[in-house]
Write a structure and sequence with these properties.
- Strand 2 and strand 3 (16-19) form a beta hairpin.
- The chain has helices spanning 52-71, 113-117; strands at residues 6-7, 10-13, 16-19, 21-23, 29-31, 96-100, 103-107, 126-129.
- The chain is globular.
- The N and C termini lie close together (11 Å).
- The chain has 149 residues and is an alpha+beta fold.
- 17% of the residues lie in helices and 20% in strands.
Length: 149
């Protein structure tokens, strides 16, 4: 990751961890505020999230990865399968994203069980490797150029 351009420190907000992500060149925040992560002004600066069709496709991809990782955790035995995010309409699901050294972190903090039981498990956040993000990157984005190769 081009560390001169990106940073994702973690901040506690209430009882959940809310990662904040910044572009260090222009100082703008691209994640960490409720509703910002999946917006065109947030990670939509890098990812194809401009219209509802793109947003729905990315939600399915990211949450699909999260659910696949959660399913591998036998100790949780499905405890994290329920939460309000599942009832939210497609294109309006909210989860946190942040940058990690190995990829994009996807964190669910919805209730009831995800926020109260599943925080800080091996799968929450789920890290999506940089290379797997290639189809979702905007052609003109410049923050993640070498990571996805």
């Amino acid at each position: 990751m081009n560390h001169k351009r990106l940073i994702s420190p973690n901040f506690f907000f209430g009882q959940t961890l809310r990662p904040h992500s910044f572009d260090l060149v222009d100082g703008s925040k691209i994640g960490g505020v409720y509703g910002l992560d999946l917006s065109p002004q947030g990670f939509g600066r890098l990812l194809k999230l401009a219209d509802k069709t793109e947003r729905i496709a990315f939600e399915r991809f990211a949450l699909g990865r999260w659910k696949a990782a959660a399913a591998k955790d036998i100790a949780m035995a499905g405890e994290c399968n329920t939460g309000w995010i599942d009832d939210a309409p497609e294109g309006e699901k909210d989860f946190y994203m942040s940058f990690e050294a190995t990829g994009l972190a996807v964190t669910r903090v919805d209730y009831p069980h995800v926020a109260s039981v599943c925080m800080f498990t091996d799968f929450n956040p789920t890290i999506i490797p940089w290379a797997d993000l290639a189809p979702w990157l905007k052609r003109d984005q410049k923050l993640l150029t070498t990571e996805v190769q």
